[in-house]
Amino acid sequence: MRSFSVSQDDVDGLFGVVGPLLDERQTRLVGAAVALMLGRGGRVGVVEASGMTFERVAAGVSQIESGEAGPSDRLRAPGAGRPLRVDQDGDLLVNLDDLVEPESRGDPMCALRWTSKSTYKLADALGEMGHEVSPELVRRLLHQMGYRLQAPAKEKEGRQHPDRDGQFRYLCSQVETHLGAGEPVISVDAKKKELVCGTQHNNGVEWQPGSKPVRVDVHSFPDPEIPKAVPYGVYDLAANAGWVAVGDDHDTAAFAANTISRWWDEVGSVAYPDATKLLITADAGGSNSYRNRLWKVELSRLAVRAGLDVTVAHFPPGTSKWNKIEHRLFSQVTANWRGRPLTSHQIIVDLIANTTTKTGLAVRAELDPEYYPLGVKISNAELASLPLKPHEWHGDWNYTLQTTSS
Fold first, then answer.
1. Nearest in space to 331 (alpha carbons), one of 299, 363, 300
2. DSSP labels, 84-113
3. pLDDT by residue (tens digit) across 263-313?
4. Coil, strand or helix: which one is 320?
5. How far apart are CA 337 and CA 202, in angstroms?
6. Can you state the percent helix, strand and coil of the chain, rounding each to 5?
């Protein structure tokens, strides 16, 4: 005999198709039959899919199990049920829709203009209009009307550069070309600075003995006396591997470039012994900004020392979330140390280095105790002397630091 597994999506789909075709009795009995077939937890799944109350489903189950669910022209058992509230109160649905309809948020006269629209507050507002409703009835009516609890979606990015899409296409073509030739391609960025203090709060939760949470400060105000960790990462796209340097000084272009240089010396040169080129994808701002002169000077030194043509392709302004290192490496690091106070630089290094994923991510992390001063100036003459070749497409965002000035 063939066995079938039924998911909640299947139950939702069933009631989405047949629900409008059934009367009250048929809905009750079909829901009860599905609940019995599903077994443990089946009643809850039917309640969520059909919008019926748990009591209605239980009544249907009782009818089937007792043999009372035979053919009948009645929709309800004799004397059972009462008129629906929406049938008794014709304005209820209209007034509820007016309260929660998105346009009402702009109406300063709306009673809920400046409050969260919970079912309790909606029930109170409807009560002031003369409707006798409970928060539970409001919840069911909202579901029937197609409303769902939803968080705001972060999709509006503000003003976009006119060449945004063109740069994405060019960057992708550079990645494909370098990977196709077996050359290394890395995504780089600095992670948010972290306070190194055992009493500072770190978002998230982890398993602890009952009633014994780690005690941390109520507030996390900036404090110049508390040391900070500055993680800068390199993510190898082809190898699905990360390398992170944890500094204790400033996030400067010299720190960023030195991290890439250390990655090449300790990892990249071993993994790609025949490489002649290196492609770096980076954000448009920060320590690896396309406007940062020191960034280009330091990368030029790496290119000459390593014998590599170092190409940099920057993401367009305002699109840093698309940088691979953000969701392939840093998001996994954050998940790995959630809920755990970061008490020392070494703890941070160890937590980063022990970050793994089911897709095979491997991470290496090391301390960088070097001092990186702020305010290093690069003259026009020094910048002009670099073996820097801008690309034909947006040479400010795409450029190659050659091994020689030819």
1. 363
2. -HHHH-TTHHHHHHHHHSGGGGG-TT-TTT
3. 999 999 999 999 999 999 999 999 999 999 999 999 999 999 999 999 999
4. helix
5. 8
6. 40, 10, 45
